Amino acid sequence: MASILCLETSTEVCSVALAIDGIIVEEREDKSGKNHALLLTCFAEEVMKAQNRPFQQLDAVAVSGGPGSYTGLRIGVSTAKGLCYAAGLPLIAIPSLEAMAYHVISDTYATGIGNNEPLFYCPMIDARRMEVYAAIYNQKMQLIRNIRADIIDHLSFSEFLVNHKILFFGNGADKCKTSIQHPNALFLDNITTSASHMAELAEKACQNHIFVDVAYYEPFYLKDFVATIPTKNIFHSNTIG
Prior knowledge:
The longest helix is centred in the N-terminal third of the chain and has 18 residues, at 70-87. The protein folds into two domains: 3-96 and 193-207, ATPase, nucleotide binding domain (Nucleotidyltransferase, domain 5, 2-Layer Sandwich), CATH 3.30.420; 97-188, ATPase, nucleotide binding domain (Nucleotidyltransferase, domain 5), CATH 3.30.420. By secondary structure, it is α/β, with parallel strands linked by helices. A hairpin with a 2-residue loop joins strand 2 (14-20) and strand 3. The strands form two sheets. Strands 3-2-1-4-5 form a five-stranded mixed β-sheet, sandwiched between helices. The protein has a five-stranded mixed β-sheet with strand order 8-7-6-9-10, with helices on one face. The chain has helices spanning 36-50, 70-87, 96-106, 108-111, 158-161, 199-207; strands spanning 3-8, 14-20, 23-30, 60-64, 91-94, 120-126, 131-137, 143-151, 166-169, 185-188. Helix 1 runs parallel beside helix 2 (70-87).
C-alpha cells in the first residue's frame, strides 16, 4: 500500500492530493489560476498535517508532467523535486492529458457518459488563442494519436471524426465548440486537471517502480517558452533593460 502526494499545476488549477493505495484521503484545490507559487507548498503542508503524516512517511511524490502552462509546470516540478530531495523520496511524472482521460474513461457515472458505445477521448489543455494541447485515447487508455499542439479550425480531427465519435473535454475544449461541428464531435463540460485524477496512475507507477530522475527530470513543455513585451511600458522606452 503506497502513500503518494500528488501535485497538479499544468493549468489554471493548483491542486494537491494525498492518496493511500490509489484512494484520495485529503486534497486542496484552487482554480483562480494566479497563485500556484504561493499556494502549492502551503497546500502540500496542509494536506499532510490534516492526515497527521510527516513527508518522510510518503512512498513517493507524483507531479503533472505536462504539457501545459510553462510557468505552472516549472513551479510544480520544482516543488516536487524539493520535497523528494528533503524527504529522500522517488519522483513520479504523470502526463497531464493522460490523467484527465483516465478520469473521464474510468468514472463514467460521475461524468454522465456511458460506455455502451465505443468512443475516442480527446483531453484538451488551452494553449492560448486557437491552439490546444491534445491527444486521443480509446476506451482502453491506448494512445490513438500522440500528444501535440493543434491549431483548431473546422477540419480539426476530421480524419478521426469521419469514422468515430470523439468526446472532447478539458479547459481547451470550450473554444473548439464553434469550430468543430461534426456530428460525431461530443463535448463534456467542467472537466479540469486535478491532482485527484493522478492517484490511480501514480499508484500503478509506484507499484511498478516507474520513477523519473529527481535531479534531471524536466516536464514535457511541448513548446518553447516565449517571453512577450508588455503592450504598456511604464517606462515609455523602446529598449529592454
